[in-house]
Amino acid sequence: MTTTKMNHTEINDQTIKILVDHFYSKILEDELVGPLFKRHIGDTLDQWGDHLLTMYRFWASVMNGTGQYKGSPHMVHSRFAHEAETEFFQRWLNLWFESCDETFVPDEADKFKKKAEMIAKSLHYTMFDDKMPEDYIPQPKSAA
Fold first, then answer.
1. pLDDT for 21-64, tens place per residue?
2. Domains of the chain: which residue ranges?
3. At the topology level of CATH, where does 13-133 sit?
4. Which residues pair with 104 in a beta bridge?
């Protein structure tokens, strides 16, 4: 996948949609987490309509307090605990962090990454009844 840095400066419904679509495109191509998502949602983003709409609402609620999302992420994800591995969270976060950095300017990307880190820790605890290891949190890439 060739990636172009987008440098969005505003967090709004349109840029959230861009980020979510970009992220799930990466998920579909990933050898570790891709098969789990494909098994439960579909092989292409065209098949992910309901899930993507839910994710747009979820992130709009998380980032902008819109209240569009009314679900329970913990309940949904706990159904997959028997199929997931702790490493899935590391990979999910790595792909999310990459997507944020590729979509937004650094300050806005960091806002998404901080929220995702808290969400991942909480979901990990729900699914595995265990604290997510600190070394599973992606570290910022050092400037080359």
1. 999 999 999 999 999 889 989 999 999 999 999 999 999 999 99
2. 13-133
3. Globin-like (1.10.490)
4. 8
